[in-house]
Amino acid sequence: MGKHDKKTGKGRLDKFYRLAKEQGYRARSAFKLVHLNRKYDLLSKSKCVIDLCAAPGGWLQVAEKYMPKGSLIIGVDLNPIKPLPHVITFVSDITTPHCRQTLRSHMHDWKADLVLHDGAPNVGSAWVQDAFTQNELVLQSLRLATEFLIKGGSFVTKVFRSQDYNSLMWVFGQLFKTVEATKPPSSRNVSAEIFVVCRDFIAPKHIDPKFLDPKHVFKDVTSLPTSIIEPESSSSGPATQASTSTAAAAAARLAANSHAHSNVFAPEKKRRHREGYAEGNYTNFFTCKAEDFVKGPDPVLVLGNMNKVEFVSDEEKAWLKSRHTTPEIVANFEDLKVLGKGDFKALMKWRLAIRLETGLDVKADPTADLTEDVVVEEMDQEEQITDELKKLHEAKVTKQKREKKRANEKKARELLKLQLNMTAPEDLENNDLALKGEEEIFDLEEGENEARRHDGSGLKTLTDIVREADGMDESSSSESEEESDEEILDSDEERERKTAALEGELDGLYENYRERMQERDAKWKVKQDRMKDKNFDAWHGIKENGSDDEDGAGRGQGEDGEGDDDSEGGWDVLASKKARIGEADSDSDTDSDSDVEMDQEEAVAKPKKKAVKFEKAGKERVSRPSGAAGNLVTSLQETEKRAQMSRQAQLWFDQSVFKDIGDLAALDGDDEEEEEEDEDEEELVETEEEGDEDDVSEVDDDVEMDEDSGGTSTLDDDGDDDFEIVPQEPEDDGTAWDVDDEDQDEVKKKIIKDKGLLTAEAVTLATALVNRQVTASQLVDQGFNRLSGHNKDGLPSWFLDDETKYYKPNIPITKEAVDALRDKQRALDARPIKKVAEAKARKKFKTMQRMEKAKKKADGVMESEEMGDGEKARQVRRMLAKAAKGKEKAKDKKVVVAKGIHKGVKGRPKGVKGKYKIVDARMRKEVRALKRIKNANKKR
Ligand SMILES: C[S@@+](CC[C@H](N)C(=O)[O-])C[C@H]1O[C@@H](n2cnc3c(N)ncnc32)[C@H](O)[C@@H]1O
C-alpha cells in the first residue's frame, strides 16, 4: 500500500498504530480485521482465505494468526508484500485477468471460505471520484469473490459511503444471505469507510455480468433486472428466494441494515435530494388512493409522502373524467417524487376543484370561480412566505438593534472610562468617541438648554450619558419606545438596573483609580483636598457669597448653605489677573501648608469681595492680600521666609510684562478701596539657591503657578521647594491627560503644559490689568457667571472630582502673554547648568577677593609719597589688572637642548620662543651630587 501518512503527525499518535507496532503487525489496519473477526468469527472456521489488496500484509498476519494451522492464505496487491510465513503473496491488479489466473493457479480447485478486500485506490482527487473508484474496486473484488468463494462463504469488503453505497449493498444482498455493514473501532471516525460483512454466499449458478458491472450497478440500481441471478441449484432454498425477491425489497432491507451504522460516518448523509427520490428512499414506493388525497385532511402530507396516487374506485375514476383532470394531472399523480413546486400547486388546485365539484367544499363567494379558489391557495403559500420573510426581517432588525445597543453600551463605558482618565483617547477603539468624550459628553459649556435638561445643574448624569450613548435622546425617543416594547432588555426597569450596575462598576473603578493615584503620588490626597477647597467649593462659594459686600465683612455662606466654601475661589481668577504674587497672610503663620488646611471659620471670615493691594516695603514689592479686613499693612515682623517670598514677588514683577507698572498699588482702577485678598493661594516659588549668590541671581527670578490652584505658586504642600519650569508651548491644551498611566516624563510634560496654560491666563489677565484694559472690580464681576452655581447633592465623587478639574471658566489668553512666557522660558533654558554656574561663581568670588586685596594694596600705593601721581596710577592699574586676571597657571617647563651653549654661544638659542632660561646639564648633576654628599655626611 505504499507510504502511508500514518508515519507522520497524527497517525503516529494513534492508539492502533502503537498497538500494531507493539504486536508486530505491519499496518494498523490489521486491527480492523481483528475487530471484524471478533464480531463475526470469520477466521477460525476458514481454511482458505484470499486477501485482495493485501499490502503491506497486516490482514494477512491476522489471518495467519487466527486461522487454523495449515490454512491456505493468499494475498495479492499492486505492491509487493514482504514474505510472511504460511502466506502466499503475489503482485497483481485485482481488476485484471492476470490476477484471476494467478489466483486460480494458487487455488487449484479449492474454494475460498473467506474473501477479504481492504483495497483503497490511491486517493487524492475529489471525494466523489475516489468513492466511485473505491466502489468500483469493491465490485471487482466481489466479482473475484463470487468466482472463488465457496457456497456459504463470506466476503468482507471495505466500502466508502457515497451515493453508490446502497447500490452496492443491494448487489451484496443479491449474493449473500446476510449482509451487514459495520464500522470497527479501529476505523477512524473521520473516515467514510465502512466494512460490509457478507455471509452465507448464495453461490448462484449464473450471475448476469451487468450485476457486477459498475456501469450498471452505479448508474441506476432500479434498472437492474430483478431476476438476473439464477440459483446454482433449485435446491438452494433461501438463495432462490433471495434471487427472486425484488431488487427494491433487497435494497430496502440492506438500506435498513446500513442505517444502523449510518450515524458513524457518511458525510453525505445530510444531503437531501430535493427533487426526485431521496437517497435510500427509492425502495419505499408508496401508493395511496386518490380519495385520500381529495378527501383527506392533509393533502400536502399525501403529496409529500406518497409516490403515486391511484384512481381505483368508481368515484375516483369519475374524477378522472372531470374537466379539471387534465392529462398532465394524471401524469403527475403517476410519480409524485419527480414533481416540482408548480406541479404540486396544480395538483392542489385540482383537488380543490374536485372538492368543489363534488360538493365537499362550498365556495365562500358564489361569484368566485375555481381560479379564484386556487388563488386563495396560492395566497396561502405566498402569505406563508411573506410571513416568513417578515419574521426574518424582524429577527434581523432585532439583531441589529441588539448589536447597536451593545455597541452603544460599550461606547458609553468607554466614554466614562475616558472621563475618568482611566484610558487614553488613542486607546479607544473609536477615536470619534474619544473626541466625543472630550468635547461633548462632559461639555460643561453646553448651554442653558442642556443645563435645564439636567436638573438645572448643567451636569449630565450617568443615566443621561448611557441614554445618549444608547441613542435614547429625545430625537430618537420614538425608536427607543419601540425598542423597549420589543426587547425586555430595553425596559425601563432593565435600563435602570443596568445603569445602576454600570454606576456601581464605575464607582468601583474610580475607587481603584483613586487608590492607584494615592499610591503613586504621596501628595495626592493633599492636592485633592486643596483642589476641593480651592477650585471648586471656594470658586463657587465666592460667587455665591456675592461680590458687593464692600464693607469687608466675612464672607457669607453659599447658596447651598453648607458654609464650607472656605477658600478664595474667585480669587483663583482674580489672583491670576494680578499675577497672583503675594505673601502669606500677615496674621497667620506663613507656612504654606497652613493655606491649604485653612479651616471653615477662617474661610467664612474672609472678605466677600476680594482685591489685591500691592505695597512697597523698602526695596521689595509685596503682594499682600490679607484675610483680615483691617490688616492692610505689611507687618514688619514678617518672617524671613516671607521676606524671601516678597523678594521673589519683586523678581516676578521685574518681568517684562510688568515693566509698565509704575506703582502696583495703582493697579486697581477703583483706587485703594479695594480690599485685600487672603493668602490662601498666595504662595511664592522658592527658587533654588544653590551655589553662590551670583548663581542665585541667575535662577531666582522664577515664579511659577501651581497646576492645582489654577495659577498659584508652587510651594509644595510639604513645604519642599518645588522649582518648576514654564512651558514652551503654553497654548497646547493637554489637560485631559491622566498622569496615572504615563511615565514620569509624560507626567512632567503634562504638568508643564497645564501650568503653561494657566500661567498664560494669569499673565493675560495681569497684562490686561496693567494696561488698564480692565479693572480688578470688573474682573471680579466677570467671575460671576453661569458656572457659579452648582448643586452637588447626589453627584458621584468621580464627577465632582472631574468638575473640580474642568468646571471653570475658560479664561482667554493673549498671544503677548504666551510670548512673554515663552521668552522667559527661553531665558531659563539659556541658563548654564548648575556645575558651570557654580564654577563661574567660584571664579567670580575669587576675583572679588583678589580685587579686594588689590584695592587695599592700591590704597597703600596711593598713600605713598615716594611716587608721583602718574607712577601711582600706573601701579594701581597694573595691580587691578593683575587681580582681575588672576594667577596664571604655571606652565609646564619645556626643556630644549640647545646646541652650542656649552661652547659659549650667546643669545636666544634657536627654536626657542618666549621666556627662556639656560641651564647647564653638567652643573645640575654636580649640584645634585653635592647635595647627596652633604646629606650623607649629616647622617654620619
Ligand atoms: C489499505 S491498504 C490494505 C491494507 C491491508 N489490508 C493490510 O492490512 O496491510 C489498500 C491496498 O489496496 C491496494 N490496491 C489498490 N488498488 C488495487 C488494485 N487495483 N489491485 C491490487 N491492489 C490494489 C493498494 O496497493 C494498497 O496496498
From TrEMBL:
Active site: K158
Positions of S-adenosyl-L-methionine binding: G57, W59, D77, D93, D118
Chief location bin: nucleus
Coiled-coil region(s): 390-421
Region (Disordered) location: 229-248, 469-647, 663-744, 842-915
Composition bias type Basic residues, residue spans: 900-915
A Gene Ontology cellular-component term: nucleolus
Entry's localization field: Nucleus, Nucleolus
Protein's UniProt keywords contain Methyltransferase: yes
Top-level lineage group: Eukaryota
Residue spans of biased composition, Basic and acidic residues class: 512-546, 612-623, 849-860, 885-895
Domain DUF3381: 267-415
Domain Ribosomal RNA methyltransferase FtsJ, chain residue ranges per copy: 25-201
InterPro entries reported in the protein's UniProt record: RNA_methyltr_RlmE (IPR050082), RNA_MeTrfase_FtsJ_dom (IPR002877), rRNA-MeTfrase_E (IPR015507), rRNA_MeTfrase_SPB1-like_C (IPR012920), rRNA_MeTfrase_Spb1_DUF3381 (IPR024576), SAM-dependent_MTases_sf (IPR029063), SPB1-like (IPR028589)
UniProt-listed GO biological process terms: maturation of 5.8S rRNA from tricistronic rRNA transcript (SSU-rRNA, 5.8S rRNA, LSU-rRNA); maturation of LSU-rRNA from tricistronic rRNA transcript (SSU-rRNA, 5.8S rRNA, LSU-rRNA)
Residue spans of biased composition, Acidic residues class: 479-493, 559-569, 584-602, 668-744
A single GO molecular function term of this UniProt record: rRNA (uridine-2'-O-)-methyltransferase activity
Keywords: Coiled coil, Methyltransferase, Nucleus, Ribosome biogenesis, rRNA processing, S-adenosyl-L-methionine, Transferase
Residues of the Ribosomal RNA methyltransferase SPB1-like C-terminal domain: 717-934
Pfam family, one: DUF3381
Family recorded in the similarity comment: Belongs to the class I-like SAM-binding methyltransferase superfamily. RNA methyltransferase RlmE family. SPB1 subfamily.
Descriptive protein name: AdoMet-dependent rRNA methyltransferase SPB1
